[in-house]
Amino acid sequence: MPLAATGDLVVAAAQARTAVAAFNIITLEHVEAVIAGAESVDAPVVLQVSENAVKFRYGRLLPLARAATAAAERASVPVALHLDHVQSDDLLRQAPGAGFSSVMYDAARLPYEQNLAATRAAADWAHAQGLWIEAELGEVGGKHGEPPLDAHAPGARTDPAEARAFVADSGVDALAVAIGSSHAMTTRTATLDHGLLKRLTATLGVPLVLHGSSGVPDDELAAAVMGGIAKVNVGTALNIAMTGAIREFLAAHPEAVDSRKYLSVGREAMARAVARLIGVLRG
């Protein structure tokens, strides 16, 4: 089927008090695994390409975007394409021509006024191109090589009053909120601030997004969805599944040299992880 629009999937999820799963992809195996996992549970899904993933692919967006688009168009479930954690304006401007219906513009590292100004400019440009745009307020650490942010550190949490003003003044369509999760966690030990989430949900009129979800236990994820999270971003969990399966296969088959043998095992492990996590979000 044709590519779905991220905004449509997220708004529908928000209205139904559920969440759409958004998985970060790096390789073609990631793409195929995410779609296979979503198809196995008959659920819509978002494929996300981060700026870091583009850097890994020699700074070229189109090869992975074209592969993701081709796979998505052959899927039996709605699949959207989202450009994630964009800091480069040059990369932002490549999104419409590469099949993306949405972007997450990441200026959260900047002081509030600079974040607002940069995000406002990005939102104005994105909307003129028909793109749905997400931003971040508060800082979900661990994304750009820094250690995971202390969830109780000053500036780590999203302030509801500040967030209300930020959404109104920036014009963004969704907001990633910092409520205790962190990117790149390899243990599922994060504890979310559900009281803060409740206040944010009551204060803001746009869908809320949870980043760093790989480090959040199942019960915390389910509670976050019940509390108003409408889009859940997952990346590291797929890499853990893939790497673990490949390590296990190569340990059992040290003679293996055909990459298809171990990549297929890794792809299957990621597909199972996708299906399981979607099940958690559905409740």
From TrEMBL:
InterPro entries: Aldolase_TIM, Class_II_FBP_aldolase, FBA_II. Zn(2+) 2 binds at residues 106, 136. GO terms for biological process: carbohydrate metabolic process. Gene3D superfamilies: Aldolase class I. Keywords: Metal-binding, Zinc. Pfam families: F_bP_aldolase. Zn(2+) 1 binds at residues 85, 183, 211. PANTHER family: D-TAGATOSE-1,6-BISPHOSPHATE ALDOLASE, D-TAGATOSE-1,6-BISPHOSPHATE ALDOLASE SUBUNIT GATY-RELATED. This is Ketose-bisphosphate aldolase. The keyword Mitochondrion does not apply. It comes from the Bacteria. Its cofactor is Zn(2+). GO terms for molecular function: aldehyde-lyase activity; zinc ion binding. Binds 2 Zn(2+) ions per subunit. One is catalytic and the other provides a structural contribution. It comes from Streptomyces sp. R41. The active site is at 84 (proton donor).
